[in-house]
Amino acid sequence: IFNQTSGNTIDIDGGTITGRVGILSVTGKTCTVDISGGTFTTTGVSIQSNGGGMALTISGGTLTGDGVNFNRNTDSTVAGDTLTMTGGTINASSCGISNNGSSTVGTTMTITGGTINGGDATAAGIYHAGPGTLTVGVENHPDSHTCPTISGATGIEMRAGTLNLYCGNIT
Prior knowledge:
Layout: E1 2-3, E2 8-19, E3 23-25, E4 31-42, E5 47-50, E6 54-58, E7 62-65, E8 68-71, E9 82-85, E10 89-92, E11 97-100, E12 107-111, E13 115-117, E14 124-128, E15 132-136, E16 149-151, E17 154-158, E18 162-165, E19 169-170
């Protein structure tokens, strides 16, 4: 699925997406992506935003491929990407989720559930090398809350930005 214009909404609640890339949003084009079910099987990135403005919510489904990548190497007037993950599974061949780029516009990632698996021997579950905020778990979480599971060669690798870590099974 290729997002070339701003303002699109992509809802996926079942079915199968197979190919090189699952969802790609081009530089400066905003979109909303809600994944509550289904299966992505890709040889490249499962989901990639090149330049900001993607509001991604994952509450279910399985993404198998090269992970979720927020790549921003230039500044623009488009707001930063957001990720809210409450469920689902990411099985990546490299980093499960990555925020990479030299832009001063950061991402906001909130992960309160689900499973993220970084794939190869050097890949992190979450690689956060660009500006922004990564929140894992729920502050003062109740006993009934299930925390996210994050694994990789490094569970979380922070190189830039802010990490708020409240709970999680991180290996």
